[in-house]
Write a structure and sequence with these properties.
The N and C termini lie far apart (47 Å). The protein has a single domain, classed as Winged helix-like DNA-binding domain superfamily/Winged helix DNA-binding domain (Arc Repressor Mutant, subunit A, Orthogonal Bundle), CATH 1.10.10. It is mainly α. It comes from Bradyrhizobium cajani. This is DUF433 domain-containing protein. InterPro entries: DUF433, Homeodomain-like_sf, WH-like_DNA-bd_sf.
């Protein structure tokens, strides 16, 4: 899978994946969406972002999640 809007540059945000070379990490964008921000509110608050940036960040997260295995533990009720 190719990501044209996700860039990794050691000189930008210590090499974290960012949106189009901007100092805007993909993790920050995903965090905003996970916290309940809408696409429209993100685009209004950060006018240099584009709708396609959000789409690609979500595809990138899905791509990473597909390869990552995380052991989940069931919730154990407190005694």
């Amino acid at each position: 899978m190719t990501f044209t809007r996700i860039t990794i540059d050691p000189a930008v945000c210590t090499g974290k994946p960012c949106i189009r070379g901007l100092r805007f990490p993909v993790a920050r964008l995903l965090g905003l969406l996970a916290a309940g921000e809408t696409r429209e509110s993100v685009l209004n608050d950060y006018p240099y972002l584009e709708r396609e940036d959000i789409d690609e960040a979500l595809r990138y997260a899905a791509f990473l999640a597909e390869d990552e295995a995380v052991e989940l533990h069931p919730n154990v009720p407190a005694k």
